[in-house]
Structures
1.
Amino acid sequence: MLHMLAEQDPGELVEGLTAVGRGIVYGGAAIGPGIGIGLVVGNAITAMARQPEAAGMVRTTMFLGIAFTEALALFGFVLAFIISG
Amino acid sequence: MILGLEFPPISHVVEWPTLFGGGAFGVNKVILLMWISVGLVCALFFVAGRKRALVPTGAQNVAESTVEFVQDQIVLQTMGPEGLGYTPFLLTLFTFVLTCNIWGLIPGVQMPVNARIALPVFMALVVYVIYHAAGLRHQGPIKYFKSIMFLPGVPWPMYFLLTPIELVTKFITQPLSLAVRLFANMLAGHLLLVSFAVITQALVESTIIGGALPLALLIFLSAFELLVAFLQAYIFTILAAVYIADAMHPEH
C-alpha cells in the first residue's frame, strides 16, 4: 500500500483527497438540516391538520423555520467549493 | 471524468467572458441580465400604474396580485399593519430577486443572476442597513442596543453567554446567512440542471432511447427549480421583513 502511494504523483493524491474531503464536508453538513427540516415540516403538517384555520400562519412560520435550518446545509455546500487542494 | 462523462469545471459553469468595458467595470452576461431585470421590473410597474382601470387586465393584473401577495402574505404576517410603510421596499426586493432567479430557467439564457454572490451580498447589505436604521429610528440608539444585548426575562449570569451570541447573530450571522442562502440555493440549482443536461446529452449521443429518463428528470427538475426560484425570493423577502420587525419591536 505504502509502496503504491510512494510511486504515485503527490499532486494526484492531494487532488483525490480534496475530492473526498468535499464529499465528506457536504455530506456531513446535510445530516443535521435533513433531520431538522423533517421535524419542522412534520410538526407543521400536524399543526395544520389539527387546526386548519391557522394554516396560513403555520405555513409562514414553517418556511421561516426551513430557511433557518437549511442555512447550515448551504454553508456546508459553499464550504465544499471553497476547499481546494 | 466520471463514468466516461466529461463534466465542465465549476468555473466554466458560472464565469462568463467580459462582453465590453474592462477591469472592475467590465460587463458580462450576468451584469447584462441584472440590468434587464431592473428594466423589466420598472417597466412592469410603470405600465401597470399608468392606466388604472377598475377591472384590471394584463400587466395591471400581474402587478396588483404581486402587490397583494407581498402585502398580505409577507408584510401583514410578520410586521402587522404598522409595517405597511415598508411594503414598497419589500415589493421591490421580491420582484427583483424573483426576476433574477427566473433567468436560470429561460432557454437560451439559463444563468440565474443570483448564482454569483455579488448581487445577494449587495442586497443583504441593503437589508442590513435598513433593519438597523429601523431599530435606531423606532427605539433610539440606547434602547436599541440594550434590547439587542440584554434579552428580557433572563437571569443575569446568562448574559455572559447570551450577549456575545446575540451581538454576533445581529451583526454578522443574519446578513451573512441571508446572502449565502440565496446564493447557494441558486448555485446548487444551476449545477443540478447543468449536471442533468450533461448526462442527458451523453446518453442521447450513445443511445437515443437511454436519454429518455434523464430528459424527463431534467424537465421535472426545471419545474422544481421554478418552485425554488419563487420560494427563495419569498424567503429572502420574508426574512428581511422579520429582521425589520424584530428591530422595531424587540419584545417577543
Note: Chain B touches chain A at residues 10, 73, 77-78, 177, 180-181, 183-185, 187-188, 231, 234-235, 238-239, 242 (CB under 8 Å).
2.
Amino acid sequence: MPGPGPLTGSHRVSDRGSHLAQLLAKTAHGDHGAFEVIYEQVAPTVFGTVRRVVRDPCLSEEVTQEVFIEIWRTASRFNSSKGSPIAWVAMIAHRRAVDRVRAEQRSADRDRRAASSEIAYDEVAESAEHNLDRERVRHCLKRLTDLQREVVTLAYYRGYTYREVAGLLGVPAGTVSTRMRDGLIRLRDCLGVGQ
Amino acid sequence: MTWRCPPPHTLAGPFAMDALDPASQRRFARHLARCSECAREVMELREVAGRLAIASASPPPDVIKDSVLRVTKRVRQLPPVVGGSHGGQRGPKTRSVRPARTPRLAIALTAGAVVAAAAIWFTGHAGDHSPASSGADPAIAAVLTAPDATMIDTAVRPGGSATVVMSLTERRLVFAAAGLRALPAYRCYELWLVGHGRDRPAGLLPMPRHGMTGPVVAVGLHAGDRLGLSVEPVAGSRHPTSRMILLITL
C-alpha cells in the first residue's frame, strides 16, 4: 500500500491521530490530496468494520464508498475535542453498516445467521493478518466475562441492537445494556484508551 | 423525562456501539446534551469502539478507491459549523448521500406490462440511447411477437420483480423490471448470459423511470443459458464482480 499505510500498532494510533486530524482539516477545505491520504490510512478499518457487520461483499463495497463520501462531505464537522479522528471515522462506518444491515436484513435471513457470538469472537481470533491492535483487542476481549464479550461482539460486530441481543441470549435487556457498558469500560482500561 | 429501566447511564454502552433503536438513540442523545459526565463517558467508549473497528481492518478492493476519488470530485462538502456548539461528536446524517429509494412497488410485471413498457419505450426514447445493448425498436418487437416467445416472471432478491420474454429462434430476450432497489451513482445493474462455461455481459440496465427499468434487449442467447443480474461499477464489468441477485434458468 502506498503512503504511510494503514493504522496499526497501539502507539501509532495516537501518533497518527493528530496527523489524521490535520488531514481532515485540509479535506474540509476541499483538499483532494489530503482526502486520498486519509483513504489510504483508514480504508482497511472502514472496509473491515463494514464487511464484518454487513457480511455481503458487494453491499460492503457499496457501504464503504458511502462512508468515504460522508467523510469527504462532512470533514468540517469533525471536532477533535470530541474524540479522535479514527473513532469518528469508525463511528461513521459502523453506523452506516448497521443502518444498512437493519434495513436490508429484517428477514428470516437475519434470524438464520443469529448464531452465537462465538463466530464473531473467532473471527477476531482467527483473522490471518497479524496486527498489533488486533492482538491487543483479542487479548482484552478474553479478559471480559463470557456475557460481556458476547454482548459486545454481537452488538459491534453483528450490528444487533441491545434488545435484539437480549432476545438472542435470553437475558433481560437491562442486563445486556449494563454488560455492554461495563464490558466496554473493562476494554477501555485493558486497552489503555484515554490514558 | 422519565426513564424506565435501564436508566440512561447504562445506555452509554449500547449508544456508543449504535445498538439502540432510533427512538432511544435520539432520547439518549438529548440526555447527553445535558449530562457532561455521560458525554465524556460516551466519548471514551466510542474510542474503545474505534479500537474494535481497527482490529477488524481488512483492505478493500482497489477499485473502491478509484470510485471514491472520482465520485467525491462531484460531491459538495458541508460548510464548517459556525458558532461552535454542535452538541457532541455527531456522525453525519446517514441518509443524505444515498439516492432516495424507489418505493417498493409491488408490481408484478406481466407480459402486457412488458408490451406497454415497450410501447412507452418506442414512443418516448426516440433519439435516446439505452446503455444496454442497443436494442432497436424492431428487436423488441421481434422477440415479443416471435412464435416461440416465452415469458418468465420472477422476484429479484433484494426487492423488485423482473419479467423476461425470450425467443430462442431470435436468440434474444427482452428484460424489464419494476421496483429494483435504487443504486448509488457509481453502481449499476448488469445483465449476464450464463452458460457454456462462461458469463457473458448482456448489457447494463438504464436508470429506472417511475420505478420501471427497461425494457432492454440482450442478444446472443443460446439454449441452456441462464440469465443473471448483478450490481457492478457504473461502467460495467467484463465478468461479474458481485453475487448474482437474480439467476433465471431460461
Note: The two ends of chain A are 31 Å apart (CA to CA).
